[in-house]
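Render this sequence as a predicted structure.
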Amino acid sequence: MDEQYPIEYYEFFVSFNEGDYYTCHDLLEEMWMTDKDNLFLKGLLQMSVAIYHYEYGNVKGARLMMQTAHDYLQAYRPKFWGLDLEKIYPFIEHCLSHFPKHIDRVAFENVGDLPTLPHLLLYLEND
């Protein structure tokens, strides 16, 4: 790969694929804080936070964050920083259509009753 990205970006892929969305938030936020105009990073950050919220029963927060991710990442399609967004958008749209619309929050012990999200693996591709 010719392109060099911040080490946190590579670490984000590992954390995301391991399902550690809280760490994803920290890694992306660290990069975003140095480049606040970068809505690509903010979109990935919002997507990670949305999944994290959903896993802990904050359905309303998940809906809001995922919609924001959808909006922020739009300008970076089809591919940006080695990430094929055309493979991410079906996941985002699936989540948005499967997040219950009539529920804002469920107790953590009831999270298993929520619709299951598909598993998304992220990987870098050559530009």
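Summary. DSSP finds five helices and two strands in the chain. The chain has a mean pLDDT of 94.
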